[in-house]
Amino acid sequence: MDELKPTPPNSTPLTPITFLERAAIIYGDCPSIVYNNSTYNWSQTRSRCLKVASSIVSLGIQRNHVVSVVAPNIPAMYELHFAVPMAGAVLNTINLRLDARTISVLLRHSESKLIFVDCQSKSLILQVLSLFPPESPRPVLVLIEDDEFPIKKTDEFVSTYEELVERGNSGFHWIRPRSEFDPIAMNYTSGTTSAPKGVVHSHRGIFVVSLDSLLEWSVPKQPVYLWTLPMFHANGWSYPWGMAAVGGTNICLRKFDAGIIYNSINKHNVTHICAAPVVLNMLSNSPESKPLNHPVYIMTAGSPPPAAVLFRTESLGFVVHHGYGLTETGGLVVSCTWKNHWNKFPANERARLKSRQGVRTVGMAEVDVVDPESGVGVQRDGSTLGEIVLKGACVMLGYFKDPEGTSKCMRNGWFYTGDVAVMHSDGYLEIKDRSKDVIISGGENLSSVEVESVLYTHPSINEAAVVARPDEFWGETPCAFVSLNKSISEKDIIEYCRAKLPHYMVPKTVIIKQELPKTSTGKIQKFVLRDIAKSMGKSNSKKMSRM
């Protein structure tokens, strides 16, 4: 059969944009997006995306140019997941929690040519651009207006979003990828400014992970999906594209709390939600918490959910599914797939089993836990530690403009995640720790190295090390250990960091020590500090500390 080769009919590039085309045919008159008092159907959503795509091209955007979005979970944010790649461009969604300095670095690193800016982020983006060096090219700005807010377009913006819709062409022939390995999206792993990591994903990878995530979660046709997970977070685990594949209704929320979530569930008959464990904790501990009128399926990931939180959440009527993924995989690639006989176990045991990350999804080729030095799989004894490694279609193309970083994590035919885990005898893996430079707070990855770099700029700080401290609300928060060369208070150190870092990266705990523990070669022993932070018990950071 050597003469049989790929041909155009059997090798057309896979792309998730085709999900929207199909949705408009099958679910054309069914609701696609609901936001406040506005409702769109799938036929309208396709038309609006085509119009915006044609307008993006008219602004001079070319194939593989980066187009950024700074917006919460509003209709424009959803539509741009299709409109930007329809224009042949690469979508870059920006974390709203980042400060102006960090966003400025990321936009320059990505070489963004166009930025869609939500009205509530208008002043932030203008501040961001003021930090650009004079010689740096300025991206074009488009303002996303909202009837709720009296913030209007000014001269810095070439257009509003709705003006692009109005003057766009609904008959636009969208720009298909030449190869399914063409880039579709780029997301930054954290707010790291010294070495930002722009994770680039292909059309093929997003196509596979979108369908894979639907299959693993057993999402039916036409679910009602409530957007509590930020779409700027790894493109909402690829569910913007996935919801089009099944003709779902996207309930968009600009902001949310427990009361808003419960009200939305009842008002819209919500069936599915994605959320970090911090949201599960919020839902189960809130004064507004009450038993649900119907089952609501929640996919949680981002950090290992405590068994106690899972138990409380499911006692309210939520059906929790636990998965694992990274920005570098575009979505969930490991899932705690449930076995029917586990239902016979006591509730506490079921929660313990569900808190494990699980097994590879159908779309992943291979997943293992290996010794990071030898690359050999660890014993399946539930106690031998190793690093999670992955192979599969949805693994990123690589880090943008960072071949060294790409080659460092992609070696021996595997993608090395940096996450430490054990493999149980039943083949289910469980994360036991994180690589030393990563703290997961509220589902967001943050680099301890960046926080340390800021601490070291303070003239009174001699040494600094940042580790994770368990937190009742956020899962983990940064805990800073410092030694001083001049007296200064813990409060002053926190305020210093607050002026230089996004608030979610600011240490919530500062411990002043005479000297930090070191190895014989002078390296700070972070494992000692992690033990100290853990022994302090869980902190109780208030929600307002993130605002």
Q: Could you explain the architecture of this structure?
A:
The protein is an alpha/beta fold and 547 residues long. It has 17 helices and 27 strands. The strands form six sheets. A nine-stranded mixed beta sheet has the order 2-1-11-10-12-13-14-15-16, sandwiched between helices. It has a five-stranded parallel beta sheet with strand order 4-3-5-6-7. A hairpin with a 2-residue loop joins β20 (410-411) and β21. The protein is globular. Keywords: Ligase, Phenylpropanoid metabolism. Residues 450-523 form the AMP-binding enzyme C-terminal domain.
Set down the secondary structure blueprint.
Blueprint: H1 17-26, E1 31-35, E2 38-41, H2 42-58, E3 66-70, H3 75-86, E4 90-93, H4 100-110, E5 114-118, H5 122-130, E6 140-144, E7 159-160, H6 161-167, E8 183-188, E9 198-202, H7 203-217, E10 224-226, H8 234-237, H9 239-245, E11 249-251, H10 258-268, E12 272-275, H11 277-285, E13 296-300, H12 307-315, E14 318-326, E15 331-335, H13 347-354, E16 359-360, E17 364-370, E18 386-392, E19 398-399, H14 403-409, E20 410-411, E21 414-423, E22 429-434, E23 438-441, E24 444-447, H15 448-455, E25 461-471, E26 475-484, H16 490-498, E27 509-512, H17 526-535
Parallel strand pairs: 1-11, 3-4, 3-5, 5-6, 6-7, 10-11, 10-12, 12-13, 13-14, 26-27
Antiparallel strand pairs: 1-2, 8-9, 9-19, 14-15, 15-16, 17-18, 18-21, 20-21, 21-22, 23-24, 25-26
Helix pairs in contact: 1-2, 1-9, 2-3, 2-6, 4-5, 7-9, 11-12, 12-13
